[in-house]
Design a protein that fits this description.
It contains 7 helices and 10 strands. The chain has 257 residues and is an alpha+beta fold. It has one domain. Strand 1 and strand 2 form a beta hairpin. About 24% of the residues have low confidence.
């Protein structure tokens, strides 16, 4: 149990970053399907035409940012397509196994007319993960490992998976040798493809898969973490080392813990 606690402290902040990213913020996302109606939102009347006028510029800017986001991200589950571009992926069998898994929160949003957004969803069970990686080295609940956190140690790195009611919700693969690259995401932007970004940055320190996105994490020579997140082959979020440290400070989880 001591081993899993130390490992969890080291990677729990990474999962926190993913949970705080747009990939897991359904209320910010807009569906790109023309057949779907917008998710119902509450509305209020503006107190005066003066207030409306003064906020127009800001609202226009937010709308532009939202449109850019919706072009890159939907509520549909991520298929992990970008994993094929991880340098050396062909010689790392864990990556292909990771691609074939389907993490899910189990939650489905509905539009005004009752249509499901991003559902129905494929899901991987605890048994599916055991079939891929074997029995875990440790678990937070050895009596019911399908309802907690489990750790695997493989030839190419360590794996930590979160489960709820025997369903995989998040999984992180910390690659051997990835942190030796001393890279950061400062050289890429959302205009890059996942393929070009991975070619430029090299093997990541860790890969995280959640329902709607795959994230790649890097460490620079100071040990500071940065990341970018993808859906398919599109990058929808880039987080700098400064942003990561700020978020880790807010959550109380930093690299020194």
């Amino acid at each position: 149990m001591k081993n899993i606690r130390l490992y969890t402290i080291g990677l729990l902040s990474l999962l926190t970053l993913a949970a705080c990213s747009p990939a897991n913020s359904g209320q910010q996302a807009k569906t790109t399907s023309s057949s779907r109606k917008p998710i119902k939102q509450s509305s209020t009347k503006k107190s005066s035409s003066k207030n409306s006028s003064s906020k127009h510029k800001s609202a226009s800017s937010e709308s532009s940012s939202s449109d850019d986001f919706s072009d890159r991200f939907s509520m549909d589950p991520d298929d992990g397509a970008s994993l094929q571009y991880v340098p050396g992926a062909a010689s790392i069998p864990e990556i292909e196994k990771l691609k074939n898994l389907h993490p899910t929160t189990g939650f489905v949003l509905k539009t005004q007319d009752g249509q499901e957004v991003g559902g129905p969803k494929a899901r991987s069970s605890y048994d599916d993960v055991v079939a891929a990686f074997g029995q875990p080295m440790d678990s937070t609940d050895s009596a019911n490992p399908g309802n907690g956190v489990n750790v695997w140690v493989t030839d190419n790195g360590d794996i930590m998976a979160f489960f709820r009611n025997n369903v995989l919700t998040n999984i992180t693969f910390r690659l051997k040798g990835g942190d030796a690259n001393h890279q950061s995401t400062a050289s890429i932007s959302k205009s890059d493809s996942a393929k070009s970004a991975l070619e430029r940055l090299g093997k990541p320190y860790a890969i995280m898969r959640s329902e709607n996105g795959t994230s790649y994490l890097y460490k620079d020579s100071n040990g500071d973490e940065s990341s970018f997140s993808t859906q398919g082959n599109k990058i929808f979020s880039v987080m700098s080392a400064e942003e990561t440290k700020r978020l880790q400070g807010i959550t109380g989880m930093n690299k020194n813990q």
